[in-house]
Specification:
EAL_sf; binds ligand C2E; eight-stranded mixed beta barrel; TIM Barrel; 21 helices; Alpha-Beta Plaits; binds calcium ion; six-stranded antiparallel sheet; 21 strands; 561 residues; Beta-Lactamase; elongated
Length: 561
């Protein structure tokens, strides 16, 4: 080649920002532009081995594999691109993207290519990656990273999701510093999973997940959950300003086809189910729990629609006079029949309606149906019976509630004195003035009030008698207890005397057998309710009961005689 052209080429190479190289099959390497390569501890003529020595140890193996495969692919002139870190003279590393291509000419085979500094690009990618997949406060990977890692799983996995309650209010009440301190303590609890191949994630403000690369047994998982809760309690004990709890949902996934979202949903739902339902604070999503969890979420997702579509009906359970067996009243109990789960019990859907703020809407509908029933019943039988309707304490928090009930009663042509409102002792907790005022107004409007489930909680007898209740309903558990325990029986006897003195009616719930009814005869309760007398009945069936003829509950009458 002409000497001038050769010199110009050399100048061009030397001024290029990228590195240019050539390598012979025996590993001799020539670098063509000094300005690029002078940052490394190298000569312009070197060997592949010397270059490899400068490569970051973590990247060395993939680099060698790549080069070997490429060298062997003689005749294949595709570009091969590799990215790796190379040590500079000052000991720091830069990211290099190397492109290589096989060449053959009269002199034989060789490889040429270039080296490009991609450190800035890598930093940007890193910070984007960091932002996309890591939580700022804890530095832990986030929910998206969990989804990504799950999508790459090659074995059965266990995902444990931890909901730490109270963090939200903690954040709003205290400084970030206190939160950081608390989180640091919390993260230490997760160290117990280091005994497995595992990773901890912060999947939302107050939710953490641990991914374990193995499908652990229920026994092991139960032990882990208990151990974690114990450790958590020990940190909260030392943290007087924190009033929260931890709930754990555990899901073992053995199905390789399950998507990341399906797995995450299962552990999240199990965790939420643990928050709402578990006394132990942890739940393993196994064959036993699965239908319960799906039912719980079915309720949560469908209750609003069910209320709006009038799918919630009532059944009516007769309440009879304890002495004569005559029918006195009915208790209206909400019922929800679904295609998927059959009848869903009210104690399953009422708390969900309360949490979702739907209880007022539901309560009004049940009240209207009950009023409708008793008006028609009394018309049909020319009787004057009452219907009892269960009222949630939350309904009383709306100050328009008493007036609204009166409007519904008037609309159905029902008289308030025939519409008994049953309230549990939760209305008395906290001495909420709005609730107490609501009770007063309801009594003033003429609605009789019944204290429901008495004896199941911890309200004192004295507080009950100070309130405007005219009926006291003894809880079925207390009734059951009193047939096996003398003290409980004596307590009931004492309660009945108090009720008589205060001119309150006493109803005993949960009468299931003749023996029970006979045992309670000396107690002189006003009325009985229970499966022995009748189960809650559909409206059409209850409507057929003769309300004013012979004693509805004859057997009881006979035993009293
Ligand atoms: P509750 O008010 O104590 O109602 C009595 C519950 O005991 C009913 O359960 C009834 O079916 C059941 N029961 C009746 N007799 C017996 C018996 O002899 N033995 C036993 N073991 N159980 C008996 P249900 O219908 O499942 O209702 C459960 C709870 O759900 C009710 O307890 C009440 O607190 C709540 N609830 C029902 N309907 C409504 C409603 O419309 N509004 C509100 N807020 N709560 C409701
Ligand atoms: Ca009740
Ligand atoms: Ca009750």
């Amino acid at each position: 080649m002409d000497e001038l052209i050769q010199r110009r080429f050399n100048n061009m190479f030397n001024s290029a920002v990228e590195g240019l190289w050539m390598m012979t099959p025996d590993g001799q390497v020539s670098f063509y532009n000094q300005s690029f390569y002078e940052q490394f501890d190298l000569h312009s003529q070197t060997t592949l081995d010397q270059w490899t020595q400068l490569i970051h140890p973590d990247d060395r193996k993939p680099f060698c594999n790549n080069v070997n495969t490429h060298i062997q692919a003689v005749g294949d002139d595709t570009r091969v691109i590799t990215q790796y870190r190379v040590k500079k003279k000052d000991g720091t590393y830069i990211w290099i993207e190397a492109t290589g291509i096989n060449q053959v000419d009269d002199s034989g085979e060789y490889m040429v290519g270039n080296h490009r500094d991609i450190t800035e690009q890598k930093k940007l990618e890193d910070s984007i990656w960091q932002l996309a997949y890591f939580d700022k406060l804890t530095g832990l990977p986030n929910r998206d990273k969990l989804a990504l890692d799950l999508s790459k799983r090659s074995s059965n996995v266990t995902v444990m999701t931890f909901h730490v309650s109270g963090i939200k209010s903690y954040v709003s009440q205290y400084s970030e510093f206190i939160l950081t301190d608390f989180i640091a303590n919390l993260l230490e609890c997760f160290n117990m999973f280091n005994r497995y191949e595992s990773q901890c994630y912060r999947t939302s403000l107050d939710t953490f997940s641990v991914l374990i690369g193995d499908g652990l047994s229920d026994d092991v998982l139960a032990k882990l959950a208990r151990e974690f809760i114990q450790q958590f309690k020990s940190i909260t004990r030392n943290n007087i300003s924190y009033f929260g709890d931890v709930y754990i949902g555990i899901y073992v996934c053995c199905n390789r086809q399950a998507s990341s979202d399906e797995i995450i949903n299962s552990t999240y739902q199990t965790c939420e189910y643990a928050v709402e339902k578990s006394k132990l604070n942890w739940v393993i999503y196994n064959d036993q729990v699965k239908p319960e969890v799906s039912k719980y979420f079915y309720i949560e997702n469908h209750i609003k629609q069910a209320i709006e579509n009038d799918e919630i009906t009532i059944h009516l359970q007769p309440i009879v006079d304890a002495a004569t067996g005559h029918l006195k009243s009915f208790e209206a109990l909400a019922r929800w029949e679904t295609e998927q789960f059959g009848f869903i019990r009210p104690d399953e859907f009422i708390p969900v309606a309360e949490t979702l703020g739907l209880i007022s809407q539901l309560g009004k509908k049940v009240f209207a149906k009950s009023a409708d029933f008793i008006v028609q019943y009394n018309q049909k039988w020319n009787s004057n019976l009452k219907v009892h309707v269960n009222i949630s304490a939350l309904q009383l928090l709306k100050d328009t509630f008493p007036q609204k009930l009166l409007e519904i009663a008037n609309d159905k042509k029902g008289r308030p004195e025939n519409l008994v409102l049953e309230l549990t002792e939760s209305v008395l907790i906290d001495n909420n003035q709005q609730v107490l005022e609501g009770l007063r107004v309801l009594t003033e409007l003429g609605f009789p009030l019944a204290m429901d489930d008495f004896g199941s909680g911890y309200s004192s007898i004295t507080s009950i008698f100070k309130m405007p209740f005219s009926i006291l309903k003894v809880d079925k558990d207390l009734a059951n207890q009193s047939i096996i325990e003398q003290e409980a029986f004596e307590y009931l006897q004492f309660l009945s005397i108090l009720c008589e003195n205060k001119q309150m009616e006493m109803t005993i719930e949960g009468i299931e057998t003749h023996e029970m009814a006979e045992m309670f005869a000396p107690i002189k309760a006003s009325s009985y309710q229970g499966y022995l007398i009748a189960k809650p009945l559909p409206v059409e069936v209850a409507m057929q009961i003769d309300g004013c003829g012979y004693p509805y509950f004859k057997k009881l009458n006979k035993s009293n005689a």
